[in-house]
Amino acid sequence: MSKRLSQVSLSLVAGTNRRDVSDVELALGLAAGEGWAIAASWHRFAPMVLTMAERSLGSRSDAEDLAQEVFLSVFRKAKTLREPEKLRSFVYSFAIFALKSELRRRHVRAWLSFLTPEALVDLGYRTVDMESRDLLRRFYTLLDRLSPRDRLVFSLKELESMTIEEIAGVMDISVSTVKRSLGHATSRLSRWIHADAGLADVFDTRRWQR
Amino acid sequence: MTRKSDHQATDFRALNALTRLGREAVDEPTAAELERGLNSLLGRVGPRQSARITARWALVALLGAFCAFLGFEVASVVRERFREVPPLAYRVEGGSVLEGGYLRDSGSGGVRLFFNEGTKVSLTPSARGRLRSVDKDGTRVVLDQGTASFDVARSKERRWLVEAGPFSVAVKGTLFTVSWAPAIERFELRLLHGSVVVSGPMASGDIELRAGQRLVVNLPKAETLITEEKSEEVHDVPSNAPSTPNTDHDLAVASSSGGSPSAKNVPGLNSSAALSAPSPSSRGERKLPWADQMANGHWDRILDEVDRAGLDATLETATSADLFALADAARYRRRTDVARAALLAQRRRFPSSSRSLDATFLLGRVEESHDRARAIGWYDEYLERAAMGTYAAEAWGRKMVLTNELKGRALARPIAEEYLRRFPKGSYAGSARALCREP
C-alpha cells in the first residue's frame, strides 16, 4: 500500500502531495490561479490568521469571516506580490488590514447606535471554565472601548506577543506611534479595570496573581 | 501614596492576567474547522474567479469581434477603391503537379497547395486529387479519393469549385474538409466556417450548408445526413484529418429517399438536437483529465460532464483517478449523493488500490452530515485496514468527536486516550485532553 506524507486533504485537491512546496512555489501557484495553491495556502496560513483574528476580535465566528475575506483578497492580489518568498508577510499584511477595517467598522457602529451592544464573546475556548469566560467577556467589553488603532496595537503586543518594531512594520506606523498607542491602551485599560467593581473583586482574591 | 501605587500594581497585574487568559483561551483551529473553512472558501473563490474570467473573456471577445468587423469593413472599402485582381498563382509542398493537374504525393505528409490569394488546400497522404483549372476566374479542384481540407480566402472575383466524385461544392470564403470514398460511394463535408453549396446526385438538389454543419451522403443507401456539430468540436478537428467512413451508425438518419435540401428546410430535420452527433463527453472524449480539471478548480465542469454522460455510466467507465476527482468535486460542491456514489464505485471497482482506502475514510466524512453512526463505521473500517494510514489521525479524531456527540463522554473517553497515546501532538489532542480531564 502506498503511503502518503500528508495528513491534510490538500492532496485531494491537487491530486498530488503539495504539502512540501515552498512559499515561493505557493506564491507562484497562487499567481497562476492554480487550484492546489488555494488549498495549500489556506492550510499553511489560515491557523495563523484565525487565531490572531480570534484573539483580537474575541469572536471565533467573526474570525472565520475575516479569514475568508483575507484569503479572498490574497488570491485576488497574488499577482501583485513581487517577492514570492514574502508570501507569509503578504498574508499577514492583509490580515492586519482586515482587522483594522473590522475594528474601525465596529467602532463606527458603536458610535452610531444608541445603546452600546453587549460584547458577544464567542471564543473557541474549549478548556476554560465559566468564571474565566465571564472575565473574558468583560475584558473584551473593555477592549471595545479603545480606539481601533490602540486596540490593535495592544492586541498584537499583548495577545500575539509581537515586538514594538514588528507591530510598527505590519501596521505601517512609526515605532513611537506604537509606543504611544500601547501606553495609552494600557493605562486606560488599567483604569477601567480599577473602576470595574466586579473585576476588582475577582482580582482582590489574588487568584489571578500568578 | 503607597496605597495608590498598590492599586496601580494590582490593576496592571489584573491586566496581565486578563491578557494571559485571552492568549491561552484561544486554541488552534482543528483540522475539521480548517477543512470547513476551506470548503467555504472554495465555494466563494470558484464562482468569483469564473465570473471574473468569463467577464474578461467576454470583453476580449467583444473587442476582438469589433476590431475584426472594423478591419473587415475598412479592408472592403479599400479593396473596392483599388480593385485590381492579381493573377492567381500557387506553390506546391509535399508533392508536385503532374500533367493534367494530377497532384502527386512525394512523401508521407500529403500534398499542400498555397495560393497567392491566401487559400490553402491540403490533401491527406492517402488522398488523390487533381488541380483541374487555375485562372483569373477561379479554381477547380477534383478530389478523386480521400480527404482534403480547404481554407478558401473570401473573394468576390474568383469562384472556387471542389468536385468529389459526383458531387461538386461551390465555395465562398470558407474553411472545410471534404472526403470522398469511391469504393463505398460515401461523401462527407464538414464545414467549419463560411458557407458552401453542394451539388450532386441528391433527390433534393443543391444543399446549402452553414458553419458547424456536417453533410454525409451515402449513395448505396441513398442516405443524406446533416448534423450540427458544436463549435468547439468542429475546431478540434484537425484540418487535414482523414474522415472515418464507417461512422454512419453514429448519426441519425436524416433522409433516405427524399433528400435534404438544406439543414434549415428539411422536414423533420430542423432540430439540431435531433441531428446532432454525440457530444464529446457522451463518446468518452474529454479535453482534460478530471484530476487536472480538479487541480484547476473546475469542479463544475466535472459535474457537468457527469450530468451529461449520466452518473451510472460514469461510475462504471471512469478511471480510478477520475472517480476520485469526481468525488472531490462533488464534495466541494456539496453533492454528497454523487460523492458517495463515486467513492463507493472506487471501492467496488478498484478494491486493492490505495484510493480505495482513502475512499473509505472520505465516505466517513461524507456520511457525517447524514448518518453519524454510519460515519463511525467507515472510520472503524479505515482504521482496521490502515492503522498507520494517511488519515489515521483524522479518523481517530473524527471518531472521538462523533462518539462523544452520539454516545456521550464515557464512551468517547477511551477513544480520546487512545488518540493521545498515538498522536499526542495531533490536531485533536486539545479536545482529547479536555475529554480525559472532565469528570
Distance between the termini of chain B: 48 Å
Largest interface chains and counts: A-B, 61 and 60 residues
What is the succession of H and E elements of chain B? HHEEEEEEEEEEEEEEEHHHHHHHHHHHH
DSSP, total strands of chain A: 0
Number of helices, counting only DSSP H or I runs of 4 residues or more of chain A: 10
Largest sheet of chain B: 15 strands, mixed
Instruction: Give the name of the CATH superfamily of the largest domain in chain A.
Output: RNA polymerase sigma factor, region 2, helix turn helix motif
Strand elements of chain B, count: 15
- Beta percentage of chain A is under 5%
If you average the pLDDT of chain B, what whole number results?
76
CATH architecture of the largest domain in chain A: Orthogonal Bundle
CATH topology of the largest domain in chain B: Jelly Rolls
Keywords:
A: 210 residues, mainly alpha, Rna Polymerase Sigma Factor, Chain: A, Arc Repressor Mutant, subunit A, 69% helix, B: 439 residues, Jelly Rolls, Serine Threonine Protein Phosphatase 5, Tetratricopeptide repeat, 3 domains, 15-stranded mixed sheet, 14 helices, elongated
